[in-house]
C-alpha cells in the first residue's frame, strides 16, 4: 500500500483536524477511518449532492446562522434554508413540515444551545417523526465547536442517521464549504442505503 494510505495520522473533514486513524474492511475495500468520529478519511470527494428542497438549520448564534445559510446557498446545496434560532423553533418548524407532508431532507443542528441543546432536540425530533408516522427519519448533521468524544459519539448514535462536523478550526467559507459538502454527501448516501 502507498505510504499515504497507511499513514497513522490523516486530516478528517468531520473533525477538522489531523487525527489518528484505523482501517476497516468494508465491502471488500480497505477504508481508513478517523479514530475519534469514524468518518472515512480516505474519502477524496463525497458523493455528488443534488440540490436539496430545503435544509433546516438551528443555531443560537444569529451571525453563524446567517453565515451557514449563505454558505449552503452559495455552494448550491439548496436554495431554501429554514433558519431557526432555538431548538424549540426547530421542532415547531419540522413538526409543521411533517404534518403538511413537506420534505425535510436534512437538518443541521448546533449542539451547545440553551435552554435545549441540539442532542435533546434531535431525540425529540425522532419522537415527533415516530408519532406522526414519518416514512424516513430526517438525516441530521451536528455542526458544533464541541470536540467529538466518546460521550458525544454515544449521543449521536441515538439519533441516526446522523453525523458530526466540527465548525471550530476550519470555519472560513473556503474551508468549511468543501467539508460540509463532503460530510453531507456521505451522510445522505448512508441514509439511502
Features:
about 190 residues; alpha/beta; Rossmann fold; 2 domains; five-stranded parallel β-sheet; three-stranded antiparallel β-sheet; 8 strands; about 20% strand; globular; disordered N terminus
Question: How would you characterize this protein structure?
Answer:
- There is one protein chain.
- This protein has helices at 3-6, 62-74, 87-100, 118-131, 150-157, 173-192, and strands spanning 9-12, 17-26, 29-34, 55-58, 81-84, 107-109, 140-144, 162-166.
- α3 runs parallel beside α4 (118-131).
- The chain is built from 6 helices and 8 strands.
- The chain is globular and about 50 Å long.
- The protein has a 5-stranded parallel beta sheet, sandwiched between helices. A 3-stranded antiparallel beta sheet has the order 1-2-3, with no helix packed on it.
- The model is unreliable at 1-5 (pLDDT under 50).
- The chain is α/β, with parallel strands linked by helices and 193 residues long.
- It has 2 domains: 3-34, no CATH class; 55-192, Rossmann fold, CATH 3.40.50.2300.
CATH fold annotation of the largest domain: Rossmann fold
The CATH class name of the largest domain reads: Alpha Beta
Return the structural class: alpha/beta
List SSEs in N-to-C order. HEEEEHEHEHEHEH
Kindly report the average pLDDT value: 89
Major β-sheet strand ordering: 5-4-6-7-8
> Radius of gyration from the CA trace?
16 Å
State the end-to-end distance: 29 Å
Shape label: globular
What's the number of helices? 6
CATH architecture of the largest domain: 3-Layer(aba) Sandwich
**Low-pLDDT residue intervals, each spanning 5 or more residues:** 1-5
> Beta-strand percentage?
15-25%
Q: Total number of β-strand segments?
A: 8
Q: Portion of residues in helices?
A: 25-40%
